[in-house]
Amino acid sequence: MANHKSAIKKARTSLRRNAINSKTLGEVGTLERKVRKALAAKSKPESEKALIEFASKVDKAAQKGRIKPTTASRKVSRLSRQISALK
Question: Strand, coil or helix: what is 42?
Answer without folding.
Answer: coil
